[in-house]
Amino acid sequence: MSALLSIENLSAVSRRDGKPILRDVSLQVESGTIHGLVGESGAGKSTISKIVLGIVSGGVVVTAGRVMLDGKDLVQIPERDKRILIGSQLALIPQDPLTALNPGRHIGDQLTDSLRMWKGFNRKAAWARALELLDHVAIRDPARVMDQFPHHLSGGMRQRVLIAAAFAIEPKLLIADEPTTALDATVQKQVLQLLKRLQAEHGTSVVFVTHDLGVVAQICDDVTLLFQGKVMEQGTAATIFNAPRHAYTRALLAASPRYDNPAAGLNPIDDAVIAACYAQIQQFDGVQHG
Amino acid sequence: MVDVTITAASHQNWKPIVAAAFSDPKVAVGGGFILLLIILALGADLIAPHDPLAQDLMLGSLPPVGMAGTEPGYWLGTDDLGRDVLSRFIHGTRIALTVAFVAATIAATVGTVVGLLAGYFGGWIDVVVSRLIEIWMAFPAVLLSILIVAILGSGMHSVIIAIAIIDWTRFARVVRAETMAQRQADYVTASTVLGFSRLGILAGEILPNVLWVVLGLFTLELGLAVVIEAILSFVGLSVSSDTPTWGGMIAQGRGIIYQAWWVFALPLAGLLATVLAFNQLGAGLRRSLDPVMQR
Amino acid sequence: MIGLITKRAGMAAVTLFGVAVVVFGLLRVAPGDPIAMMIGPGATADDILRLRASYGLDQPLINQFWIWLGSLLQGDFGTSISRRIDVGQLLLERLPATIELALMALLVSMVLGGFIAIIGTLWRRHWASGAIDGVNGVLLAIPEFVWALALVLALGVAFPVLPLSGRINPSLTTDFRTGFSLLESLLIFRFDLAADLARHMTMPVLALALPLAGIIARVLREALSEAMMQDYVTLARVKGMSELRLILFEAMRNAIGPTLALTGVQFTFLIGGTVIVEKIFSYPGLGNMAIDAVVNRDFPLIQGLVLMFGVIFILINLLVDFAVVAFNPRLRHG
Ligand SMILES: Nc1ncnc2c1ncn2[C@@H]1O[C@H](COP(=O)(O)OP(=O)(O)OP(=O)(O)O)[C@@H](O)[C@H]1O
Ligand SMILES: [Mg+2]
């Protein structure tokens, strides 16, 4: 297996104050696998996703590194080529299903966009395909939903619609940025299962962004653990969970609700561990500038 | 229970605000031009090179300097009656500015009071005021102003009254909405709890905050009033025809535009610049006051 | 939704009634005896008394008002003093010219304003967007009266490319069946006439359209920029849509509602602006006639004109209310 997405030594800073946001991040996503991108809030998970998808805001400046997709550098290629490449081969499942659908467009139109743009479907064929897709994400009465507006649907329904839209073009790489955080617990579980099922069926590669190690254990093959934009630990899910090397990983595992034993108590992360992490980052920044 | 400093906080320190406003380039440029106009208006008798009414048919339709056939001293040419265009323009600023400031002040005062009452007391007062505003909006402003002046008889007083009658709603609408928003704000609730009278709150708490908004509107209104006065004198309904006004000059110039376009062009340029200046001033004031208002 | 519409329609009726009251009041305070004006010199005191009674003018003010309102509702606007023609007929004669002018100006302002807003949004990270904002600021700061005069000087005198007054070249004598000359000439394939009408209309249309274009551009631009920051646009960007397509098909849908609502209200101001603009360009519409009516103290005509404008304004506002509901899927499906 070769890496579909290969991020190499990616660094980014904030335009406003030059503060580092990503620090020399490298990671590989193998074909047909789910790669968990884990870290606490502000670790830079979304920033990485956005750089890959070409939607990073003007406030973030990429200072170094490459983002190779199938051998092409997404940071370097011309804007137009990049748009076409991303549109036809990548897809995003966003965090908040309530804001990610256009309130002014019919669900059907939003579902068929990619099919018509990149798969050569005409209106009718795209519509038929979208009905299948909705059916596949277990939406009842898809024909009716196609004619509705987003505000008619519940959060869970909307996330299903968004998942259907993401899989519509059979993307090579799917980025799911905390796709379940905005949903309530029971719906979360269903959506996660759905995602896993579709991924397995289509053999899609996924970057799965989360701060929930329990979710990682359930669905991820590989894991990258970030802290303040720096990779702390990287490896297969099995190694990370069974033989964590970094003190931060161990502390994080101890701090999360045990997916295998929810009854066990939580251990807050030791301040000393955090301090050690910051020391590591400072040392890194020192090397960069000194 | 209630923190009295909340009340104090609503009277923001105005010195830095004013300082910020004056350093704004838009305020500087717009305000600078208006200041120039005010100086021209006040000192018209001293500044104008000629008597604006003095006719000399021998010197009729002289072009401005730089063109063929000029006469020394008549910088911007003369009209068909041989009156100095520059002098008439300078004297015209008087009517323009007087009307603008008086009419805008009346409109602002009436509109603010009505808007405050409607916004603060709500109920039937608000219903009546809202309806009134809506009815007012159903009249074309220019037509209404012309009609009012026609009814009252032409002259500067009528023009001022007409503008005030038409434009008080501009202030009332905005002040009403602003007052409603302010009424919800914490400090008013705090004052109510402390037992201030309702009118006291209106005058002491809400008015000072609303005043910033009124100031911005007032600046725009000045520009609009100058234009309405020009329209009325263009139609021949403003002051008597021998008093020089920009609108009157424009109307006169329109008739002789192929022989002496400058009679038309100068007051038009003045009007254009004045409107833009008031606009810039208003925009600048709003911009520099806005962060203070946290909006 | 039905409830909302009836409520708005009811409020419009109240406003219309208020307009009638104000017009009635204005004309009562106007100096001069309307009967004396109507009847002209040479009438005996007896004639005047009789006419007074026939108009109900000998009755108390409140009765006078009801009589007056009743005749208005029957479509009786009286007779123009200066033109000696039925006011209703005069209004209907002039109305089409003003409608053509106003609608054309609305069209131009929407196209121009929309274009400026779209270009500004497209280039929002580019220095040129600052220049566009500057131009737009000038567009909207200058009122139609000043634009009209500036156009007279620029396109009528300095570069005399357009006719300065009128609606059509008098040498092109044609009997139009309707007052909608431009539309009619297009329908009967007389493009020579249409071209001449268009040339006459260009300056008044521009004078009316430029300020509104500026307002539309500013509001639409703000709404578009706001919409462009929404998650659904980001998602559509990931789908590979071009920037222009994002603006036109994703952001525009949600930005256009508020903009249209504002455009509707501003359109009433534009119609108000036809009064002076028609005067400046001697364009034979309602506005031009209105100024003449005031100058001639032709009160029956003034009354008819003011009421006409009032009805038009109120109808437009009502239409805007309905359009807002129709354009917003949330409101439409309640
Ligand atoms: N537009 C921006 N301009 C400047 N800094 C930014 C911008 N967007 C994000 N950042 C900074 O980048 C850092 C990483 O943000 P990011 O959103 O990638 O974190 P995250 O890991 O996704 O966190 P969360 O779990 O809260 O979503 C944060 O410190 C944030 O302040
Ligand atoms: Mg994030």
Helices and strands, with pairings:
The complex is a heterotrimer of chains A (290), B (295) and C (334).
Chain A: E1 3-14, E2 20-30, E3 34-39, H1 45-53, E4 60-69, E5 72-73, H2 79-89, E6 90-93, H3 107-118, H4 123-136, H5 142-146, H6 155-168, E7 173-177, H7 185-202, E8 205-210, H8 213-219, E9 222-227, E10 230-236, H9 237-242, H10 247-255, H11 271-289
Parallel strand pairs in A: 3-8, 3-9, 6-7, 7-8
Antiparallel strand pairs in A: 1-2, 1-4, 4-5, 9-10
Helix pairs in contact in A: 3-4, 3-6, 4-6, 6-7
Chain B: H1 4-10, H2 14-23, H3 25-42, H4 44-47, H5 85-121, H6 123-137, H7 141-152, H8 156-184, H9 186-194, H10 198-235, H11 246-255, H12 261-293
Chain C: H1 2-29, H2 34-39, H3 45-54, H4 61-73, H5 87-122, H6 128-141, H7 144-158, H8 181-187, H9 191-228, H10 231-238, H11 243-280, H12 286-295, H13 299-327, H14 329-332
The complex binds adenosine-5'-triphosphate and magnesium ion.
How does this model look, in words?
The complex is a heterotrimer of chains A (290), B (295) and C (334). Chain A is 43% helix and 24% strand. Chain A is built from eleven helices and ten strands. Chain A has a single domain (3-289), classed as 3-Layer(aba) Sandwich (Rossmann fold), CATH 3.40.50. The two termini of chain A are 39 Å apart. The model of chain A has no long low-confidence stretch (mean pLDDT 89). Helix content of chain B is 75%, strand content 0%. The two termini of chain B are 28 Å apart. Chains B and C meet through α6, α7, α10 and α12 of B and α1, α6, α7, α11 and α12 of C. Magnesium ion is lined by residues 45-46 of chain A. The site of magnesium ion has 2 residues of chain A, from α1.
> In CATH terms, what is the architecture of chain A?
3-Layer(aba) Sandwich
Strand percentage of chain C: under 5%
Averaged pLDDT of chain A: 89
The number of distinct β-strands of chain C equals: 0
- Largest sheet of chain A, described in full? 6 strands, mixed
Instruction: Give the largest interface pair and sizes.
Output: B-C, 41 and 47 residues
CATH topology of the domain at 95-296 in chain C: MetI-like fold
General form of chain C: globular
Instruction: Report the C-alpha radius of gyration of chain C, rounded.
Output: 24 Å
First-last Cα distance of chain C:
7 Å
Number of strands of chain A: 10
Question: pLDDT below 50 for ≥5 consecutive residues: which ranges of chain A?
Answer: none
Describe the global form of chain A: globular
- How many helices of chain A does DSSP assign? 11
What is the subunit organization of this protein? heterotrimer
**In this structure, how is the largest beta sheet of chain C organized?**
none
Cα Rg of chain A: 20 Å
What class, by secondary structure content of chain A? alpha/beta
Poorly predicted parts of chain C: none
- Give the total of domains of chain A: 1
What is the CATH top level name of chain A?
Alpha Beta
Domain ABC transporter (chain A): 5-253
Keywords (chain A): ATP-binding, Cell inner membrane, Cell membrane, Membrane, Nucleotide-binding, Translocase, Transport
InterPro entries (chain A): AAA+_ATPase, ABC_Ni/Peptide_Import, ABC_transporter-like_ATP-bd, ABC_transporter-like_CS, Oligopep_ABC_C, P-loop_NTPase
GO molecular function (chain A): ATP binding; ATP hydrolysis activity
